[in-house]
Specification:
Strand content: under 5%
Radius of gyration: 16 Å
CATH architecture of the largest domain: Up-down Bundle
Distance between the termini: 43 Å
Number of helices: 7
Structural class: mainly alpha
Order of helices and strands: HHHHHHH
Number of domains: 2
Helix content: 55-70%
Largest sheet: none
Shape: globular
CATH topology of the largest domain: AhpD-like
CATH class of the largest domain: Mainly Alpha
């Protein structure tokens, strides 16, 4: 996709683009076909909004590789203390080619900018995502 397409001048089916990006980021998790992401519960449209705006409009852009987008996203989620999303994006980062060591370096680097509490929280969330809670190597 070209930058002009990603900016909206040629491509208009952002939901379909979002599904494609999400399936690539999380192989085997999102079923094929046009699926309804709504669950009938409170604020059910939140996932649909993210599908279009985040996965369709942002992750489909050409300006950064998927690997680089994962590095940026993990950094931002650490800074925000968004540990639930961080667990998911840790797995996505690994799918996009990041190593555990690189993700650890992001946690270390973040400590210098957002502080120890955010980095410790991130470490715990990432350990959970990696299945390393209670495991000693």
């Amino acid at each position: 996709m070209t930058t002009s397409e990603a900016n909206g001048s040629a491509r208009t089916d952002w939901r379909a683009e979002g599904l494609e990006e999400l399936r690539a980021a999380m192989p085997g998790v999102i079923p094929e076909g046009d699926i309804d992401m709504r669950d009938g519960l409170f604020a059910e449209e939140l996932v649909e909004l993210g599908l279009v705006s985040v996965w369709g409009l942002l992750w489909s852009r050409d300006g950064l590789s998927k690997r680089d987008r994962s590095l940026v996203t993990i950094s931002l989620l650490i800074a925000l203390g968004a540990e639930t999303e961080l667990k998911t994006h840790t797995r996505i980062g690994l799918t996009n080619g990041l190593t555990k060591e690189e993700i650890a370096e992001v946690v270390y680097h973040a400590a210098g900018y957002v502080g120890a509490p955010r980095s410790v929280g991130a470490r715990t969330a990432i350990r959970e995502a990696l299945g390393e809670i209670g495991v000693r190597e």
